[in-house]
Amino acid sequence: MFKLENVKFKDIIEINELKIEDNLVTAVLGPSGGGKTTFLKLLNNMISADTGKIYYKNRLIEDYDPVKLRRKVVMLPQDPQIFKGSIADNFKFTEELTAKKYSDDEVYKELLKKVSLDKNLFDAAEKLSGGERQRLALARVMLLEPDTLLLDEPSSSLDLETEEKIIDMVVKYARNNCRTMIMVTHSPDIADEFADRIINIEKGKIV
Ligand SMILES: Nc1ncnc2c1ncn2[C@@H]1O[C@H](COP(=O)(O)OP(=O)(O)OP(=O)(O)O)[C@@H](O)[C@H]1O
Ligand SMILES: [Mg+2]
Fold first, then answer.
1. How wide is the angle at C-alpha 187 spanned by C-alphas 108 and 194, nearest 5°?
2. For residues 107 and 110, what is the distance between their CA atoms, to the nearest angstrom?
3. Could you give the CA distance from residue 96 to residue 42 in angstroms, rounded to a whole number?
4. Global pTM?
């Protein structure tokens, strides 16, 4: 799926060689400031490497139309922005941004169930708690049905029990629908339990 060769970004990332396989769950671990978020951003071309090559499905990442690439490779940021308006508006705005047609409310409701968010579609999104916002943001990513999900600490605001439940759900979603998932997590336990492969990034290098 992804192949990196001699990739450098400022003095933050230096990866000589890395392959990330299709349809697997990869966890990314490492100390704060080590370059995990930067690594994810390189994978959907939100930032471009200074040198080296990044391939997605055997094609150089910069050869893709960035908008199309970001519909296939969707990133859930570490601190996702919640849009103004209702929960339904958040889903609709996500679809507008990616030039996708609006889905039926039933689809949105199903997603809320998936992320265990017991709220009405017309509730104000800004009133949600931190952990609820995080789950709404995850639901918005799933709405786009990306080939690859880049999740940056998707459960950092959740209690242990909810974290386990949500990660289990999204991993099953990825496996059952043949998606590739790359997830930054602070939790070695979550990585061990759910990932097919673990990558450790320290001081910008794979260790
Ligand atoms: N665009 C940028 N320009 C300059 N420095 C940057 C840029 N983006 C990130 N950095 C720096 O690069 C380092 C790695 O940042 P990054 O956000 O990738 O770390 P991280 O591993 O995700 O950390 P955390 O676990 O705290 O989220 C940090 O020291 C950060 O300040
Ligand atoms: Mg980070």
1. 60
2. 5
3. 24
4. 0.96
- What are the tens digits of pLDDT across the range 162-206? 999 999 999 999 999 999 999 999 999 999 999 999 999 999 999
Ligand 1 shell residues, CB under 6 Å: 10, 12, 30, 32-38, 78
Q: 136-160: b or e for each residue (b if 16 or more CB lie within 10 Å)?
A: bbbbbbbbbebbbbbbbbbbbbbee
Phi-psi region of 33 (alpha: psi -120 to 50; beta: other; left: phi over 0): left
Q: Which ligand is nearest to the CA of 30?
A: 1
d(CA 144, CA 25): 18
- All domains in the chain, ordered by first residue: 2-206 (3.40.50.300)
- CA 1 to chain CA centroid, Å, is 15
Do the Cβ atoms of 12 and 204 come closer than 8 Å?
yes
β-pairing verdict for 51-56 and 59-60: antiparallel
Instruction: Provide the residues around ligand 2 (an ion) whose CB is within 5 A.
Output: 36-37, 78
